[in-house]
Queue: 3 jobs
Job 1
Amino acid sequence: MSPLDYLMIAIRVAFSAFVPLCFVAVCVWMERRGAGYFQDRSGPNRAGIFGFRAAGLVQNLADGLKLAFKEDIISQHIKHKFFFVLAPVIVFFTAVVSFAVVPYADTLVLNGKSYMMQGIPVDLGILWFIALAGFSVYGIILAGWSSSNKYGILGSLRSAAQVISYEIPMGLAIVSLLIVYGTVSLNEMAQFQGKLLFGFIPMWGAVLQPVGMVIFIIAAFAECNRTPFDLAEGESEIVAGFHVEYSAMKFAIFFMGEYVAMFASSSIIVTLFFGGYQIPFLSTATLLNWAKPVAFLLMIALPVVMYFFAGWIRRSNVSHYPRENDPRVFEANVYIKCFWGLIVILELVLLAILFSPSGGAAASIFVALLQICTLLLKVTMMIFVFIWVRWTLPRFRYDQLQKLGWQMLLPLALLNIFITSAVVVALS
């Protein structure tokens, strides 16, 4: 193996490991700011370092430090301490590893060699995600059972019943997708969605399988234990459910796992139904052929976008009452200077691409970076949907949850398979 091969392996593994972890902070921030917005109140805006609040992101750091230094209590009545400690690790590990097969860019070709842009370059694709998503419930079951607490056991039983109820419709929704795509490889599914239907409609899964998309997204909410499917930790009924006995970092790991699972589920949803890393109307081949014009357009667009973004920062960082030497204005000016510095660096990178040889390695790397940014943007928008639903809908009753899974989603998923099969056979 050449040094380039080792470098690409390191980059792939680092991206698949660190991006989900970094998005934990983004998800927590979006959750709090979104909750504040939907409830017509301010989100976190007080915690700061030397006056810099970073729009509430510093609150995440404060909470992380609090949980890290908080006393870690394991009650004396807990008999199975090993499984009690292992449970949050299982939930967190399965959530991180489930993202490892998501392609974040098309196959990168450098010096005649092809590199799959996935943490684990395998073709198992969606099968890997289904297996790990089902395995994560073992951590919840272990947490409830090892807690020796009736509320914990009730929460773990609810979670197990919920996973069984919603994994079946999720699997059937995927079957209808496999009929359309003809592959289990997530990278090949994303490449398929780079085509155009009737010459002007992106062939996204949401267009080809709208019913399957709705079923899969609902099931993904249930798999992540997100409202309205959070009966496993319903505080109004079973206090906190499976994590009632957890404190400090073990408690934090459970909820880091929840947010990583939300990021991984959003990545899978985007890859299956919203084109993955594909930019609408711009396939990988098109981007490679038009890399320099695209770079030139970005050179023009970035300063314009930054100008309006800087105006928004100035309007949003002003005290609600007149203050001499307003510290929020100073904070906003520092942020604006930092962002303009980032824009200058990006402009220099784009300028280097304009002067690089056409169709060379620089163009391939540029296209890969564009596709990575596209995927992360789509995933962020899907995470917002998760948060939007949480702060809009109330929690289902247990009978409503089971009725939705068994009496509505399951027959609908089966019907969708029959209709999809009939259409595919007829068109073939």
Job 2
Amino acid sequence: MTDFLAGIPGPLAVVAVVALLFAESGLLIGVFLPGSGAVLAFGWLAGHGVVDVWVAAVSAFAATASGCQHGYFRGRRDGLLRRQLVQRLGEQRLARVESALDGRAEVTVAASQCFAVVRTLVPRLAGRAEMTHLRFTVCNVPVAAAWATTLVLLGAWSGAAYERVQTIVGFMGLPLLGIAALIVLAAWWIRRRKQLRQLR
């Protein structure tokens, strides 16, 4: 990934990564695309002065968050969604993802941002399950910001250890899951307070 991006100017690298991340989180072809690896490589380029670190972080966040929004709205209106997902995942794997959304939608949406494949599928399934747009956005956007910023900074600071960092990036899901849990807890607490006020 770094070899490919290093050969193009900074603005074109931004466009390439933004397009890739939008597709990875917003289109079904995204299940085959490298999301985390692309963000790490983008951070590596920022660390070498090809683009500013803040530009890389904001671009990566905006691309993946807007891709998730696109996936959510496609899930709301795409009648062929389930058949397409069954073809790509299989009935059993899809059933597991759907069951996670049943009663634990906030946690599933927040946690899905940290992991490949489900980052592509969960927004569509959330839209199909008629999760409200506000709930989806509150659970997805802050975690997308944390995910993109963390990986860009890791890539920028990795230097010669880039390849080693790339091999262990899967473990980044653990602290991000902690952040996701805090966001979900806050959303639940706010909703609970509103319900208690209405009962009074």
Job 3
Amino acid sequence: MSDTEFQPISLPPTVFYPPFNITRASHYIQTVRDLDVSKAFYCGVLGLLVSDEDAQTVYLRGAEEACHHSLILRQTTGAPECEAIGFRVLTEAELDLAYDWAVGQGLDPHWIEAPYQGRTLRLRDPAGTPVELCAHMPVLARRMDNGGGRLHLAKRLDHFQVLNPKIDACTAFYAAIGFRISDVIVVEGALEACFLWRKGSVSDLVLMEGDGPRLHHAAFFVRNVGDILRVCDNVGEKGFAPMTVEEGPGRHGMDGAYYVYLRDPDGHRVELFDGHYQTIDAELPPLQYRPEQAAPPWGRPTLSSWFEEGTAFSDTQKITAPRPRNAPTMEGYVRGKSR
């Protein structure tokens, strides 16, 4: 199909003055079966810093993050899950605006106790994804020296990607609260993936159609492709299984960023990548792509696990996506080569 035959889809309008002001992806909470092993992975492989810890919980942040945490690891005796993804709002007053708006939408928002976050509001999007909003965290010292160039590789949390069975409704939901759309992937006239942002880059939240809601991955920014290779070397040097590296190193097709996807000891997926392009100017329209345009420009196809697997959200009903995914996979490539 040529570019002239591609028919863009209609997308929700941009809301420049939303009901409350979300500023960026902030933090997420994962449960793990062995806190020490998970800490060794996130600190020893990715280079995250420990802000605080006790026998049940570890609070982590990237080297350039001044706020207290971007990842909370919690010990569990059950299946590993994601408790919630979190966003920052600009001020405390925005939390009250968010609460009133959510009540008006029938979303049943509620306040929760969350250490090191001040007042924290919890609600769910139309697919059931648990979302936290907070305005404040304690401020700690950044590690701008990069630990001599080897240790503190993950600089800051950048975005979440969620497998979402109600991608159209959730795109409209997030657009209504001020998220702008940078890119979308369209398959046969339907939305397959939507990149939404608040901080002026490509994404703070990516919705990818799939059974869920499930957390597909959280992504941390690194300075350069050398840091991505260093992370891969850390996997071997720290004694983690080679298949910890699930996908990549590679290069994204839409923005050209270098990346690698890892699976932590509990199967939670994390991405390291070296940056997005700027999107902040008001006149920039969303870009629409076919899957083959968005695919990596080189390398072998992706493992099927990357498309199909994700972390369940706590106390959330899994919904089946309405359309099957037919992306080319590494398994299909190998079968074809073996014939």
